[in-house]
Specification:
Elements: H1 2-107, E1 119-120, H2 124-129, E2 146-147, H3 150-165, H4 174-184, E3 192-197, E4 215-220, E5 226-237, E6 242-247, E7 258-263, E8 267-273
Antiparallel strand pairs: 1-2, 3-8, 4-5, 4-8, 5-6, 6-7
Helix pairs in contact: 1-3, 3-4
C-alpha cells in the first residue's frame, strides 16, 4: 500500500513537472518569437530611416543644384538684359539719325508740310490723317494763322509721325512723351529754351507768344485740374483759349500720343526748341 502511494505521488509529480516544462517551453517559444518579430521590425525601421536619410541628402543636393542653376540663369538673364539695353540705345541712336535726316529732307521742301516756313496750318495730308486738326481756326480764318520756326515745324512733324503714322508707345508720363518728341526732332535738353515760366495757378495772359511746336505746361481743366505737358499745334478759338495740342495720356498707359482740345488759359511754362 505504501509503495502504491509513492508510485502515485511520483507519477503526479512527474505529470506536474511535465506540464510546467511544457508551459515554460511554450512561453519561451512565444517570447522568442515576439523578440525576433520585434527585431525584424526594428531592422525594417532602421532600413527605412537609412533610405529616408539618403533621400533627404539626395533631395538637398538636388535643391542646391537647382538653386545654382537658377543663379546661373539669372546671371545670364541680367547679362542679356544689359545687352538688350545697349542694343536698344544703339538702335535709338541710329533711328534718331535716320529720322533727323528724314525731317531735314522734308523741311527742304516745306510745301509738303505747310505753305510757308514761317506759318503753320495743317495741309490736306495732315487733315486726312487726323480729324481733330480740322478744328484749327487757320483753315477758315487767315487772321488766325500762327507763326512758327523751322524748329517748331520739325517738332510738329516728328510728333505727328510718332503719334499718327508709327503710333509709337512712350510709356511713362505726359512729360516723357513730349521730351521724346523733342529729342527725336533733334532738340535734346541742351537745345531748348524756356520762353515763359511761372507757378502753377498763376494767371497767364501772353497768349500771342505761343508758336506751333512749343512745349506747354498747363492745368488740365478737363481732368481733375492736374498738371499736363503738351505740344501746341494751333488755336481752335483764340478768344476762349481753346487750342489743339498733341500729348500723351500718361499714367504708364500703352497708348500713342494723340491730338486733343484743351483750355490753355492755365499755362504756366513754355519751352521752345532752339539750334
Amino acid at each position: 500500500m505504501k509503495e502504491y502511494k509513492e508510485i502515485k505521488n511520483s507519477l503526479f509529480f512527474n505529470r506536474t513537472s511535465l506540464i510546467t516544462i511544457l508551459i515554460l517551453m511554450f512561453n519561451v517559444t512565444f517570447i522568442n518569437a515576439q523578440f525576433w518579430k520585434f527585431w525584424g521590425n526594428k531592422q525594417k525601421i532602421d532600413s527605412l530611416e537609412l533610405i529616408i536619410n539618403k533621400d533627404r541628402k539626395s533631395f538637398k543636393k538636388e535643391v542646391a543644384q537647382v538653386y545654382l542653376s537658377l543663379k546661373i540663369l539669372q546671371n545670364k538673364t541680367d547679362s542679356l538684359s544689359y545687352d538688350l539695353i545697349s542694343t536698344q540705345q544703339t538702335l535709338d541712336s541710329l533711328a534718331f539719325k535716320l529720322i533727323d535726316k528724314s525731317i531735314s529732307d522734308t523741311l527742304s521742301t516745306p510745301k509738303k508740310l505747310v505753305d510757308s516756313k514761317s506759318i503753320f496750318c495743317p495741309d490736306k495730308n495732315f487733315l486726312a490723317e487726323s480729324e481733330k486738326l480740322k478744328n484749327c481756326c487757320c483753315l477758315n480764318d487767315e487772321s488766325c494763322l500762327s507763326e512758327t520756326t523751322d524748329n517748331g515745324l520739325r517738332v510738329i512733324n516728328e510728333g505727328h509721325r510718332m503719334a499718327i503714322k508709327s503710333r509709337s508707345i512712350v510709356k511713362g508720363s505726359c512729360w516723357d512723351f513730349v521730351d521724346r518728341v523733342f529729342t527725336r526732332s533733334g532738340f535734346n535738353r541742351t537745345n531748348r529754351e524756356t520762353i515763359y515760366s511761372n507757378k502753377k495757378g498763376t494767371k497767364f495772359s501772353q497768349f500771342d507768344i505761343l508758336q506751333p511746336g512749343d512745349w506747354v505746361y498747363h492745368v488740365n481743366y478737363s481732368f481733375h485740374n492736374v498738371e499736363h505737358s503738351a505740344i501746341f499745334i494751333c488755336w481752335k478759338d483764340f478768344k476762349k483759349r481753346i487750342a489743339i495740342t498733341l500729348s500723351y495720356a500718361g499714367q504708364n498707359k500703352s497708348v500713342p500720343g494723340k491730338y486733343g482740345l484743351y483750355d490753355l488759359s492755365g499755362i504756366y511754362n513754355i519751352i521752345r526748341p532752339k539750334n
